[in-house]
Amino acid sequence: MTTAQELKDLFRHGLDLLAEGRIEEWIDGFTEDGVLEFPYPAWGIPTRMQGREALLAQMTMFREQLKVEFSEPEFYTATEDGLVIAAYTGECTLIATGGQYHQTYLSVVHFEQDRIALYRDFWDPWSVMQAAGGELAWKQILPTMAPN
Fold this sequence. Notes:
Elements (H helix, E strand, L loop, with lengths): L3 H16 L3 H6 L1 E8 L10 E3 L1 H14 E5 L3 E5 L4 E12 L5 E13 L2 E8 L2 H7 L3 H7 L7
Parallel strand pairs: 1-7
Antiparallel strand pairs: 1-2, 3-5, 4-5, 5-6, 6-7
């Protein structure tokens, strides 16, 4: 059984991997059919990705188009049955435009045997669209951000 502290450490490590652009390693922390959900995505971003292949397709864009430094997460809960709820911030730069923005995240994560089964990430899509130059500019640059 994983302790609450170990789950917090796994979560923090995941944020470090994302900030360092180590997307493949971050995805290795998911179960085979793990799910990443964005209940409030920016236009053109899927709300749900399931399975490592789908995660890799989407999150490769994250690494190529966004630089971010995350704050230390504030944990609202971490339970031995695998639930972690954490709030944290990111200082972000959108590579396509150089636009910078501050993002607040709230993540609800369910772990199964030390792997992420569900990562539900609540963030403000308007922040990233503003960094792109507004909604219209976001819609224009989004196709250029797709992984090669």
